[in-house]
Automatic annotation (TrEMBL):
Pfam families: Shisa_N (PF13908). This is Protein shisa-like-2A isoform X3. Its main location: membrane. It comes from Camelus ferus. The keyword Transmembrane applies. The chain crosses the membrane at residues 57-90. GO terms for cellular component: membrane.
Length: 119
């Protein structure tokens, strides 16, 4: 890393002329050229890859954690509601045996015996 940022083409396809670090009116400690091919800036850490302060990243992480937590609570509430509704639906059905369609009654076996006269 050096203190000279070369000319580059920005993400908006604009040519940005090269500049040296630190820039006039910038931080005196920002003596390194940092960034990517389409976005360069002066920084005080030669291993910096992100042009924002670390506090910005923490707010982004906290926001993501809050969002994921809310999504997890909504998913859990949905699963619990579905289980309760299934339990209530199954519990509200009458407990009768299924009708197989055939009348299965015991028959009188005396009709099946041969009469004594035929023996």
């Amino acid at each position: 890393m050096s203190g000279a940022c070369t000319t580059y083409v920005s993400a908006e396809q604009e040519v940005v002329r090269g500049f040296s670090c630190p820039r006039p009116g910038g931080e005196a400690a920002a003596v390194f050229c940092c960034g990517f091919r389409d976005h360069k800036y002066c920084c005080d850490d030669p291993h910096s890859f992100f042009p924002y302060e670390h506090s910005y990243m923490w707010w982004l992480s906290i926001g993501a954690l809050v969002g994921l937590s809310i999504a997890a609570v909504v998913l859990l509430a949905f699963i619990v509601t579905a289980c309760v509704l299934c339990y209530l639906f199954i519990g509200s059905k009458p407990h009768t045996k299924l009708d197989p369609g055939l009348s299965l009654q015991t028959t009188d076996h005396s009709l099946w015996r041969k009469p004594d006269a035929m023996l």
